[in-house]
Amino acid sequence: MKKIINSNYFYAFIALCCALWLFFFVSTPGVGSTRDSNQSNTSTVTKKATLTVPLQLQADVDKYYITGYPQNVKVTIEGPSALVTATKNTQNFNLYLNLKDLSIGQHRVQIKESGLNSELTYTIKPKYVTVNIQRRETKKFAVDIDYNKESLATGYEAGKTEVSPDTVTVTGAASEIEKINKVIVKPILPKGIKSTFDQEVLVQALDKNGKTVNVTLNPQTVHVKIPITIQSKQVSINLKQKGDSNDTNFTFESDVKSIRIFGTQSQMDAINDSVDIPIDVSDVTGNTKKSIDLADALGNKVAFTDPTNIDVTINTGSSTSTSTSGNTNDSTTNGSTNNTNSSNNNSTSNNNDSE
């Protein structure tokens, strides 16, 4: 036995057995091959994704103005998971319309792609689009402004409007440019506005019917400033009697001698250095004090005043009818006295004659 173990054939046999064991161990799937198996399975799993991609034009856009196509289209890609993920993250492909050989007019054109990996399948929606190719034209227009002046608070006026820039560049199909009647901004002022309007406003190109024309404006917005102010001045007040007085003489007193009036320039121009304040005495029977609402007293002559109210003391004087009655009584008394004196004189005369 010892002789066999020490022989070269024994060791050769052992080596052969080990080699066979290693061969079968490596060839049989097991725990050691899990990672490689997972990697292999990952590379063969398919995945689907839908992307939104900008649509590009292959055309002479300096010469032609092209409309009718969407800015973006959707493309659904499908293929190996890793490849779909990489394509989704990088989007290193293009979707485009080839219009180079097309003439002026409408055309139905297929959307094409370039740059997608050949292992991916794809579907583009929409597959076809209808484009309108027209001769390109560029023109400058002055910007008009239109706003509702009724939005201003009572008595307030709008000054000279500022638009910056006051011209815009309009680009579009020559046929569309010809339709433009005016380029305008329409700022929307808050109801009852009392302060300067100062905002960016969208520019519109309109035809003679007031409909929007399909053109490109540069810039698309302009800065609009509308100064909104109200005029005012200080005036003295004249307290004037109003209503039936019943021949009563009234006098008026107030601690307020002058007020500030507010309104439009035309309202200010119509008033000199003073205003008449009517004091209604139709319900006054004696000395009293009234609070006068200046807005009601002045009506539409001004927008409002400062102060808005004043206190007026109303004093009543002597009545003319009372004075007349007094004179009549005095005359009657005097007459009566004279008659008495005459009677006394007659009585005295008679007595003397008797004697």
Topology (elements, then pairings):
Blueprint: H1 2-5, H2 8-27, H3 34-44, E1 46-58, E2 64-67, E3 72-80, H4 81-90, E4 94-98, E5 105-110, E6 112-114, E7 121-125, E8 128-145, E9 157-158, E10 162-164, E11 167-173, H5 174-177, E12 182-185, E13 197-206, E14 216-218, E15 221-226, E16 228-229, E17 231-242, E18 250-253, E19 258-263, H6 265-270, E20 274-280, E21 288-293, H7 294-298, E22 304-306, E23 309-316, H8 320-354
Parallel strand pairs: 1-4, 8-12, 17-20
Antiparallel strand pairs: 1-3, 2-8, 3-7, 4-6, 5-8, 8-11, 9-16, 10-15, 11-14, 12-13, 13-15, 17-19, 18-23, 19-22, 21-23
Description:
- The relative contact order is 0.08.
- Strands 2, 5, 8, 10, 11, 12, 13, 14 and 15 form a nine-stranded mixed beta sheet that branches. This protein has a five-stranded mixed beta sheet with strand order 6-4-1-3-7. A four-stranded mixed beta sheet has the order 20-17-19-22.
- The chain folds into three domains: 44-126, RNA Polymerase Alpha Subunit, Chain A, domain 2, CATH 2.170.120; 136-229, Beta Complex (RNA Polymerase Alpha Subunit, Chain A, domain 2), CATH 2.170.120; 231-316, YbbR-like domain (RNA Polymerase Alpha Subunit, Chain A, domain 2, Beta Complex).
- It is built from eight helices and 23 strands.
- The chain has helices at 2-5, 8-27, 34-44, 81-90, 174-177, 265-270, 294-298, 320-354, and strands spanning 46-58, 64-67, 72-80, 94-98, 105-110, 112-114, 121-125, 128-145, 157-158, 162-164, 167-173, 182-185, 197-206, 216-218, 221-226, 228-229, 231-242, 250-253, 258-263, 274-280, 288-293, 304-306, 309-316.
- By secondary structure, it is an alpha+beta fold.
